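Quick one: structure tokens for this chain, please?
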Amino acid sequence: MKRTFGVAILLLLAMVMGGVGAPYLPALKSLLDRQLAGRPTPPADDLDAQLRLRRAAERSVQAEQKVGLLQKTLDAEKTRVVATDVDRELNQETIARLAKELAAAREDLGKQQVALATAKATRRTVEASPSKPPPTASPLHGVKTWPDGLRCEGDMRNGHMNGSVTCRDAGNARFDGQWINDKPNGEGTLIVPGRVAYSGTWRDGCLWAGRDWITVATSKQACGRP
């Protein structure tokens, strides 16, 4: 309700401002209609693209009208009958001035047409763009255990270990590294007491150690071939 009231105020201001707010009036009216009808409001990017396209179209039409008016005035001046040398001299000066103004108006028309084409392309791009995905939720800190005694603590998303995780098993071996969906994936290190440390890039809980698979939270059979 507050948002609808705010849009109504903007609409009222645009009406009061007259010529200044007139270009925004149709877009603001459409926005208010959507609010009152319970329909979703277009994204800010889409609304901005609509306004830019509307302004570009208006400027292009104005530039085209100016070119047409100058062309008619120039043609009339060229066909005007002059009686004296003074009138003829003034007539030539007027024709030269109008020709110069016409050339400048045509140049401006070209620029406005380019701006209109750009605004149309931008609007099409905005319309075709998918909605922005919602921001990814921050990971929660959690603890998870496995039947074989493995206990992991670290980042959790959607109930699974995802992110930076530290684990210990029943034999006090320690793993530190990156996890995806309850398995080591990415860089990680497994330290086994009294033995060597295994470091590298893990894939679904598997790390090839040159002769055999080293596993965490999975079985060697699941690792397949190296």
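Residues 107 and 114 are 11 Å apart (CA to CA).
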